Amino acid sequence: MSAGIPPGEIVALETVGLGIEIGGRTICRSLSLSFGAAQCWAVLGLNGAGKTTLLHTLAGVRPPQSGEVRLDGRSLARTPRRVIARSIGLLAQDLLDAFDGTVLETTLIGRHPHLSRWHWEGAEDARIAMAALAEVDLDRLAARRVSTLSGGECERLAIAAVLAQQPRVWLLDEPTSHLDAHHQLLVLDLFACRAAEQGRTVVMSLHDASLAARYCTHALLLFEGGEALAGAAASVLTEASLTRLYRHPIREIAADGLRLFVPR
Predict the structure, then answer these.
(1) Do 108 and 165 touch, CB atoms closer than 8 A?
(2) CATH code of the domain covering residue 243
(3) What is the pLDDT of residue 210?
């Protein structure tokens, strides 16, 4: 299947005839998609549908079986790693498990793609890192050791690091996992605003279709057997498509201007 964007809009990342397989399962076949500037995408599917594998392929972490991923029209496979690191920020599911540095030191890892060889972080990098920590409500813990943080705080720290990276494209694997309701909404609002106000591209895997409808402009549904459905969130996120996706009846409820999807 394919889905494009209107003529004249900037395409940051795209797939052309993408085919992905893992463990003998087909995640997608002949997937051609354009992820444009100022777009916020939700990727939804059952556990094991391949959401993580797709995001890793989009980030260039693993090669596809067929087709290709393009960054600014150039094959990702032929793009220098430093260019990719400056352009694409990947938030993995696994929480940070690096050296037991401070919260600020760990956030500064996000600045590494922007440093010249053998150079250390400077005052501007520290300012950017502290601003990122403040956005996820962690600036007061900047001097704490990472080993003293809770699971939710570690998740927000990983988000701060990828914010400090300042890429044009964010690929976020379940950014709301480990977070309480307050911080879930804070994080999703943060990235949705980055897309809308700064023209960034956001692609994130989610499990909550209601949150996807609330914050995302577009949606990609991954069905079994490699079939996919993609397009504007308003048309893709429906009772029929979500019932088929989750293999359970889903009902849509309108409340205070929001579209809520709940199991029947």
Answers:
(1) no
(2) 3.40.50.300
(3) 97
